[in-house]
Amino acid sequence: DGGITQSPKYLFRKEGQNVTLSCEQNLNHDAMYWYRQDPGQGLRLIYYSQIVNDFQKGDIAEGYSVSREKKESFPLTVTSAQKNPTAFYLCASARVLGQGLSGYTFGSGTRLTVV
Amino acid sequence: SQQGEEDPQALSIQEGENATMNCSYKTSINNLQWYRQNSGRGLVHLILIRSNEREKHSGRLRVTLDTSKKSSSLLITASRAADTASYFCALLYGGSQGNLIFGKGTKLSVKP
Fold first, then answer.
1. What was the pLDDT predicted at A99?
2. Which residue of A6, A76, A94, B102 is 20 to 30 Å from A70, comparing CA positions?
């Protein structure tokens, strides 16, 4: 079955440590996204990529980094510069259509906690 | 902010009743989408409605769009306990660089 897989489901980070969240899709979607979700704040865009080897900052990119070396993969690194990383992270993908994008397909999320 | 604003923030109803959630926005849009999120899970796409459409149906879901009022509504008919979730509207507009802008959601609770 086609879909989008995030791993791990739960992740614990120590102060000053970098961690990488995985996102893989086999939907042949061109566009991929990373969102952060905090309670009561909806989804905020961290980074997005609409083509391989290219990505753009979203609204809250500081303290995060990404890469898009393969169409299927869009890993997110939470660096030590991100001072408040505890949150629920969601990866999504979408197909580029003539007049925009298809609906987004989301992964099941990674819950990151700083310990 | 260019995000949609859902109303109400929370809604509690009995099983079998209809649930209506609204989304208002401030700028012209290309399309508007509704998503559902069960607690601790990813979002699931429900319906996409384009700016030149006024109404769409999918099973027990009915979405309307009024571009003159810059608002949309999601109606869930004959609700079930399994409909308990948060519902988000998401906007695609010309200035969003092809990205959806999500609102903060309506938390729906359906009591058996």
1. 63
2. B102
| Tens-digit pLDDT profile for residues B21-41 | 999 999 889 899 999 999 989
3-state secondary structure B34-58: EEEECCCCCEEEEEEEECCCCEEEE
Q: Measured between CB atoms, which of B31, B42, B48 is closest to A109?
A: B42
CA distance B57 to chain A (A): 16
State both tokens at B98: 């092809």
pLDDT band of residue A102 (cuts 50, 70, 90) is confident
The radius of gyration computed from the CA coordinates of chain B, to the nearest angstrom, equals 13
Task: Mention every residue, 6+ apart, whose C-beta is less than 8 A from residue B73.
Answer: B20, B21, B22, B23, B63, B64
| pLDDT tens sequence across A53-85 | 999 999 999 999 999 999 999 999 999 988 899
Chain B residues within 8 Å of chain A (Cβ atoms): 3, 30-31, 33, 35, 40-45, 48, 88, 90, 92, 97-100, 102-105
d(CA B39, CA A53): 34
Token duo for residue A46: 């961290």
